[in-house]
Amino acid sequence: MIERLRSGVAAGALAGLVYGLFMWLVISPVIGYLEHVAVHGDGHGHEAAHPAGETMTAVVSAGGGVLWGVLLGAAFGVAYYLFEPALPGEESKPYVLGAAGFLAVSVAPWTVFPPATPAMAPLYGSSVRVPIYIGLIGVGIIVAAASVLGYACTSRTRGRGVGVFVAVLPLAALALLSVVAPPTLTGGEGSAGLTAAFRWLVGFSQAGLWALIAVAFHHLDRRVGPQTTDSLSAAARGTD
Amino acid sequence: MSTNTDTVADRFATAGAQFDPLTALTAVALVAALGFTLLFMQDPLVHEALHDFRHGAGIICH
After folding, report:
1. Interchain contact, A206 vs B11, CB within 8 Å
2. Given a cut of 90, is residue A6 above it in pLDDT?
3. Is residue B27 part of a domain?
4. Domains in chain B, number
5. Which of A18, A44, A146, A223 to pair with A9, CA 20 to 30 A apart?
6. Phi and psi at residue A230, in whole multiples of 5°?
7. Is B11 inside any structural domain?
8. What mean pLDDT is predicted for residues A64-90?
9. In the structure, what pLDDT confidence band is assigned to residue B17 with cuts at 50, 70 and 90?
10. Sign of the C-alpha dihedral, residues B3, A90, A216, B57?
11. Would the CB atoms of A229 and B51 count as touching at under 8 Å?
12. pLDDT at A233 over 50
């Protein structure tokens, strides 16, 4: 287990460094721009509140990105050790777990609390949002587990097509949740295009972070682990 | 990358045998502290310094 944890932390640190760099070079400037637009556009934003200073905020946020990668990587390593026997596929196991992690930690909370641009203000206080957010991560874990287990069980007995169909059912239920969930944000109506672009940026950067963790973990784990199988399929896969 | 025949329950049992509860508790506490600081810390200075990160990662608790 220690080996898997070590691989996970190393993969997370690697992915976190890339993500932190991305935070520094892309996301922070984009958020700065969006704040600028928000304040000088419709006067809705919260640009004024920067007691830590712009540079400090960018540095700490980049560091936060690195630590975020380390945190997710450590969780990934432990989860991989514990649940590896239940994951379908051979070479694709880390990628299945990476997708499950992305679903649980990011996508499930986003169904109720979509990523907010600086122009938007939350409708509810953090004492309401934090418990729901944690609960949604739990929901995401259940959905991911149901999807993976459903696929593993039915594809073994009824074939792959049925397995995929069963795996999609929990995901569809989660998608339905995003449709029925009440709105949790106000503001930012004036720039639907900017908001959509920002959400795609956020979604892809998180997916990329998980993909990077899975790829790095796959390589590290194979080097550390006792079994060495062919490395073609992993090398053929890109990151993001 | 896995040839084993053990199950998830076996893995939990192995992990339970390898680590005493105090070590496991310490590890969980450290992870929880890091997670809390990154995601939920509302102290104004910490909060504002992590502002870009929380927006960028799509974390709503900011």
Report:
1. no
2. no
3. yes
4. 1
5. A146
6. -65, 145
7. no
8. 89
9. confident
10. negative
11. no
12. no
